[in-house]
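pasting DUF2808 domain-containing protein for the record, 194 residues
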Amino acid sequence: MSKAFTKFIISPRNAYFLSAGTLLLGLFLPTPLLTSPTVASPLYKQETSSSSSCRLVRAATSCYQINVPATYHFTIQVPKNGRPLQAVSIAQKDNAETIRFDLSKNRAFIGGSFAGGPELPLASIGGSEVADPSVITVVFDRPVAPGEKVTVALQAEQNPQLVGDYLFEVTAFPVGSDRAGIDLGVTNLHFDSE
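structre below
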């Protein structure tokens, strides 16, 4: 390694410019390079997950093309040392349009997204927010046991008409939790014209 290159790396002044340049590069990268079209990860969390809190593992769609029916999967891991999970709420956040779901076709199963594990019967779909089409609450007939993964599958009547990222806030309600539940964060699904 040349002396000039070594001097560049260890110079505090150059380290500052390198950090600023990296930050600017991040601002100009197109969004599609930063996100996957069918798999999403949490964008932010309001509270820090602990080892005893549920965790949003994955959000995915069976089809990311606009204007077609699709199934959206939200997979949640219930920790081994946590409380059983009784219900999940999924709310659309400030999207270009509200996606409508066929409540009669929504379901849940034990296991990861699109794995098709054992069906988990639902006690109810909709909850107290049934009047608000942007929020769906799913209550499990039996709580999801600690250490299990559960996937909530929501059947969209059709994907949105407008291309872009659509945000969903996921809240978990363990057995005995307060009304607010545990915020698992906001995740996104990207829909495109092709």
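DSSP finds three helices and ten strands in the chain.
The longest strand covers residues 164-174.
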